[in-house]
Structure prediction request, 480 residues.
Amino acid sequence: MTETTATQRKPVKASEIDPKFKYELTRMHGGEKLLRCFQCETYTSDCPVARFSDTYRPRTLIHMAKLGLRERVLHSETLWLCASCFTCTDRCPQGIEVASVIRVLRNLAAEKGIVPQVFKEQAASIIESGYAYKIPSLRIRKRETTGLPPLPKGNPENIHRTLQGVKFFESIGKREEKHEQQEH
Amino acid sequence: MSSRNIKYLIFLGCAIPHRVSSYEISARKVLQKLGLELVEMPEFNCCGLPLDPVSHETMLILAARNLAFAEQTGLNIITLCPRCAGTLKKVNKVLKADKALREQINGYLKDSGLEFKGTVETKHILQVLTEDVDLEKIREAVLTPLTMLKVAEHVGCPRLRPKEYIGFDDPEDPQTLKRLIEATDATCLDYANETECCGAPSVGVSDEVALQLARDKLNNVKLVEAQALITICPLCHIMFDTNELRIERMFQETCGIPVLHYAQLLGLAMGMTPEELAFNELRVDASKILQVIGVN
Prediction:
């Protein structure tokens, strides 16, 4: 059994529960219909990632969110495994945007400074060049020889200014908050 | 409908100029030959989708910024990447419907003299080929029918889901790409789990899970004896073409399925050469299928 699954299966203590957490989620864009969930299993059984991962179970994540296990779900490593294919969203019998609820949870985790490296790199690249990846200069020069027009320019200075005040960019510099619950 | 006067603003996204120029080269040639006029974006930033998992607000701002630039040109957007198309479509719809959110996002753009108004539409190349060019016209443009070729298609999730925002084709049983493939006279085979994810969005978080998803699809494609897999997304293409060798090494099995962009397949049928369509940039050797259709 992996560590994450062990954390997920730990008994729930009353002190861990934040009873208002689910309402916080329903007030966020994409999380509105969360309370309609009756834990029917469609999201897990139809999830392509769950077929190949021993730990990623969207049903467990949504259940933790509804129970109010704020810290446990936001610190869950499996939260980042969703491929955002939206199969669960299209098939949910209750019309919940399940993949968007997962995204809402990830956004909240990111505000706590929990951001996988890959996203930090893409964010830095967008701020520096407008593009999510650093495009090698060889590629840029090669465009001409293959008959492609020059790449449209990004405007880093303006992008930087535009994104000022966005919570995420204030939090990426922040150190990841430790999840004390795991130490007990 | 004649496509002679169809003019679009082309939104390249990041993945294509970064790693998949074969897609851009072939798509531009095919679109030009079909009579579409492409105008470059005046200024560019990422569509925003890569940062949606960490900040929905950032995604909305980045997408709205691009839409606002497009609105200034008065042209609708065509994308080659379905992730960009899906994002720009979704944000356009969401911001048009939600006044408070629109005002919030426009607040970030105001200092730069930009404003999102919701006046342009975004379409992925597949939608443009189907709705603006028309299947009949594509059939007429075919000079070398690919009659002997049997292929499979991978449409990819962002081209289909979530249905509410994409609103084009049936995500459970998509037909658009199949019809476009058949327009070249090639056969398009059905296979198991056709609409499932290629795994690309999980790369960097769990490469193992991502590669297992791609491997599963490649195995299903192999099972029906398809001679090639046809994609319409740069990231799906990276998963199946660039990563095919990696998958073979990781799982100790041979695959050998050439992976073509739909624009390359159509280009061949329209009489263009493999060189013109940047076949040299493909990782998996595609010479077998060129032999099948008699092009060398």
